[in-house]
Amino acid sequence: MRTRPAGIGNVNADWMGSLPSKLSAMPLKYLAVPGSHDSFTFWVDVHAPVGPDQKAYVKYLATMFSVLAKKVMVKWSMTQNLTFKEQLDAGIRYFDLRVSSKPSEPGSEIYFIHGLFGHKVRDGLLEINSFLGRHKKEVVFLDFNHYYAMDAEHHVYLIHMLQQVFGSKLCSDCAVENITLNFLWEKKYQVIVFYHHPSAQGIPVMWPGNKIPAPWANTTEPNKLIQFLETTLKERNKQGSFHVTQAILTPTVNTVAKGLVWGLRDYLVERNLPVIMSWVQTQRPGKDGVNIITSDFVELTDFANIVIKLNNMLLSESECKPR
């Protein structure tokens, strides 16, 4: 039986609903919101084929050395240990989602994917919706940003699924500056879906991907990551979008080769987290500051709490009111 990592509880299950009125009246683009990178990778299926998001040589190795190769892939594909419910209880409100059909499977079923296939998307959405039903003032960002082996039929199926599961909780696309917690509570909206594909054009409850840019540093070095994050924050759009700060390191083929038996968490993430989190703690939300911040293995530090507490800086400021 899977056990909950030590120190994880539901202490932040209602953090949005507990914010002071001054903060709930501010545009969400000015608040600090904790998110997870590759949010669904707490479970991947080692018995399924390698996903279509992988390069040809990875698929070849997985075919030749099936069990061994997939065990290595699990170690480097998993970026989270917590389920959706556990992440939500911990305070995570932004989810980075990558999805795919199974090319060998009939029908239109969609799965989460990161190297290997994960759970059915529908199961994950139902888990999120169940949480929202119990926590009426909490709001989530669902960012569907990568699609694999999906044709028009698959997109229609997924968009219909999102509408079916969340129904009236879905917030329609509008000016980002109008999105405050007070506005969302009044309308009983709890879900903002970003759909980075032309299939969603013209569907009011599917927000375009350009309203949530997430610059990617693509580096294994924490100092280069921090330099990149600071540069992209300075270049953040003043109007019309949220902003994702991806506080993550990305392994190269060489990194994987050197740390083959250790995996992403042990070889790359844990040793560099203190430097990254020290930078996060010095950030401030607001007009020219951080908004959504994502991390791998959100349970390894007090990540969500650290990000949520950044909002306290706004209580003594008035600069964050919309113009």
From TrEMBL:
<feature type="domain" description="Phosphatidylinositol-specific phospholipase C X">
    <location>
        <begin position="27"/>
        <end position="196"/>
    </location>
</feature>
<dbReference type="InterPro" id="IPR051057">
    <property type="entry name" value="PI-PLC_domain"/>
</dbReference>
<dbReference type="InterPro" id="IPR000909">
    <property type="entry name" value="PLipase_C_PInositol-sp_X_dom"/>
</dbReference>
<dbReference type="InterPro" id="IPR017946">
    <property type="entry name" value="PLC-like_Pdiesterase_TIM-brl"/>
</dbReference>
<dbReference type="InterPro" id="IPR042158">
    <property type="entry name" value="PLCXD1/2/3"/>
</dbReference>
<protein>
    <submittedName>
        <fullName>PI-PLC X domain-containing protein 2</fullName>
    </submittedName>
</protein>
